[in-house]
Amino acid sequence: QVQLVESGGGLVQAGGSLRLSCAASGRTSDILTMGWFRQAPGKEREFAAAITWSGGNTNYADSVKGRFTISRDNVKNTLYLQMNKLKPEDTAVYYCAAAKSRSGFLYPTTYEYDYWGQGTQVTVSS
């Protein structure tokens, strides 16, 4: 019912910035929560940030708090992740996700999300 496509990944030096985008299509009216997750090689997918679709409330993992900013434009049906002060440990495939309930915001695990994009690679060099 919902399709998600990420873009904006790339290679940056430590301390640099990137902005990721996620275009949502289909039954976007079903979306209550959107989030960003990331997965490094050999590691489990982990939560980075979440936002409520209508209210714009945000939730961040401690590892990115103060450096990353999640936002959304629900007119354009687009989710963003502004990443500043990037570190080599931020290197991962970043996935956009959408949930049909607020549980994805309150309990931001992969199991609470209903739709996923294919991911975009972010590589931070030192």
Task: Show the helix and strand layout.
Layout: E1 2-7, E2 10-13, E3 18-26, E4 33-39, E5 46-52, E6 58-60, E7 68-73, E8 78-83, E9 92-99, H1 103-106, E10 115-116, E11 120-125
Parallel strand pairs: 2-11
Antiparallel strand pairs: 1-3, 3-8, 4-5, 4-9, 5-6, 7-8, 9-10, 9-11
Labels describing this entry:
globular, 1 helix, seven-stranded mixed β-sheet, 126 residues, mainly beta, four-stranded antiparallel β-sheet
Task: Describe, in short, the structure shown.
The chain is mainly beta.
CA-based gyration radius: 13 Å
Class computed from helices, strands and strand pairing: mainly beta
What's the average pLDDT? 96
Give me the strand/helix succession.
EEEEEEEEEHEE
Spans of at least 5 consecutive residues whose pLDDT stays below 50 are none
User: What is the percent of helical residues?
Assistant: under 10%
What composes the largest sheet?
7 strands, mixed
| Straight-line N-to-C gap | 40 Å
Tell me, what's the shape? globular
Strand content: over 45%
Tell me the number of helical segments per DSSP (H or I, 4 or more residues long). Answer: 1
Find the count of extended strands (DSSP E, 2+ residues): 11
Describe this structure in words.
It contains one helix and eleven strands; from the N terminus they run βββββββββαββ. The N and C termini lie far apart (40 Å). The chain is mainly beta.
